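Hi all, a correction to my earlier message: I attached the wrong file for DNA recombination protein RmuC. Here's the right sequence:
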Amino acid sequence: MDFSIMVYAVIALVGVAIGWLFASYQHAQQKAEQLAEREEMVAELSAAKQQITQSEHWRAECELLNNEVRSLQSINTSLEADLREVTTRMEAAQQHADDKIRQMINSEQRLSEQFENLANRIFEHSNRRVDEQNRQSLNSLLSPLREQVAGRFSPSGSGQFR
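and the right structure:
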């Protein structure tokens, strides 16, 4: 019996050793799985941190761009107001220039009419003077001839020459 106890004891020791080895193997496997999970979590955490960093960078970039857009919109609004003001002034200046041109055209037409009237009056006056001078010259030339012709005809009305 001693031998069988020893066999049982050896079998029990071998069983305990196998159990211990099996438990150690499972424990090592669990540790390896935990280590792999931990490394995976560390990688995920690192990726998440990098993503957060990139998100913060893009958020800051977005904020800068939004500020720039607001600034450009403000400048655009100001420039649009300036453009409206300049356009209004230009339209007023154009209207004023158009009015001046119309006034000048009207003045030119009036002056042309006045000049034509004056030229006609001068021409008429000159014609009258020339006509009068011609009449006087003709009368002074024809007067001796008339007197001669009148003297040649008899006053008796016979119509004969003397």
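Sorry for the mix-up. The helical segments are 2-152.
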